[in-house]
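Re: [ENG-882] Designed sequences occasionally contain unexpected residues at chain ends

Forwarding the minimal case from QA. Structure tokens:
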């Protein structure tokens, strides 16, 4: 059996990049809040663009775990075609039931962000039992997908109205009060669970994200989170999961692996950017800032559902790889055997 890939070489830097970026944006927001008020849309779009590559190799992921011989060209084309079909289905469904689609989008986004971070932390810090992973996922998802609606309802309202007419009830005071209580409980339980499990870094990261989404305008908070936290950590998982990278990573050539990922992600990312640009320049009745933000979120919604299917496959198969979990302090595996 091949030697396990030392995951710390990828996961630890990814974690530092994400926490450093969020901490920097939070610090600016606390010292000079008017800066982010002025540049919120630009930061959101920058984060959106920076985050697009993390889903750009989704069509390759099923092949990484394919045990049968390489399929014929027709079968290889099925993955991107299915992905495109799923992406088109979401806006079509939103035309029929926009409020319900928006609510589902919020729920699946919370689960996706939460479980994605839980998987990253399990690889970096060592595996946790299913209950702890679930608590981590729910707390992280509540902060990133629910807290903006609770804390910044007036700034979020124009985006919600354009995306999902009829979903204003999500911003009503009783709903926000209940959501705030649930989010606070989720964060408290998440921090206590992490601390009891000896995972102080995870508790600190959860509190850092909570401070970000509480103190910084929602477009800025989501932009830096999506582009510098969620996407960076997901890319780290992808480069570890790709079996073609194993030998290069064992040799310590992390930069070569990232360049290879960049080449693979380039064309799909350009296509997504073209779609985003087309959405932004279309005329509309809403103010430009709200319209642009709403259309950026609409693109994310269209791409999120097929992306979830691919990530679910990655989650199931990741444990079979010879990727060694990194101990939080030493980078050594915490007693986990490669399968």
């Amino acid at each position: 059996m091949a030697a396990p890939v030392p995951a710390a070489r990828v996961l630890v830097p990814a974690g530092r990049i994400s926490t450093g970026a969020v901490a920097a944006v939070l610090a600016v927001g606390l010292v000079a809040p008017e800066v982010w008020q002025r540049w919120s849309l630009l930061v959101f779009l920058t984060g959106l663009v920076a985050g697009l590559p993390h889903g750009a190799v989704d069509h390759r992921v099923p092949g990484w775990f394919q045990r049968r011989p390489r399929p014929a060209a027709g079968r290889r084309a099925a993955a991107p075609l299915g992905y495109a079909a799923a992406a088109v289905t979401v806006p079509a469904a939103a035309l029929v039931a926009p409020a319900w689609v928006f609510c589902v989008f919020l729920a699946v986004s919370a689960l996706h962000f939460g479980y994605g971070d839980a998987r990253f932390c399990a690889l970096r810090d060592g595996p946790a039992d299913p209950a702890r992973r679930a608590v981590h996922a729910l707390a992280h998802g509540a902060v990133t997908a629910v807290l903006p609606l609770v804390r910044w309802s007036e700034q979020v309202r124009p985006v919600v109205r354009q995306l999902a007419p009829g979903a204003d009830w999500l911003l009503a005071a009783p709903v926000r009060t209940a959501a705030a209580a649930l989010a606070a409980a989720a964060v408290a339980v998440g921090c206590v669970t992490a601390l009891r499990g000896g995972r102080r870094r995870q508790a600190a990261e959860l509190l850092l994200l909570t401070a970000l989404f509480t103190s910084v305008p929602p477009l800025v908070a989501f932009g830096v989170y999506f582009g510098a936290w969620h996407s960076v950590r997901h890319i780290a998982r992808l480069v570890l999961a790709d079996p073609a990278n194993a030998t290069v990573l064992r040799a310590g050539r992390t930069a070569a692996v990232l360049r290879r990922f960049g080449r693979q992600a380039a064309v799909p990312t350009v296509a997504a950017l073209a779609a985003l640009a087309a959405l932004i320049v279309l005329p509309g009745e809403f103010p430009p800032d709200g319209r642009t933000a709403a259309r950026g979120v609409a693109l994310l919604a269209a791409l999120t559902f097929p992306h979830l299917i691919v990530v679910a496959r990655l989650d199931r198969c990741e444990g079979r790889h010879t990727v060694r979990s990194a101990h939080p302090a030493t980078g050594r595996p915490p007693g986990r055997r490669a399968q």
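QA comment: On inspection the terminal residues look reasonable. The beta strands are 5-6, 323-324. Proposing we downgrade this to a documentation issue.
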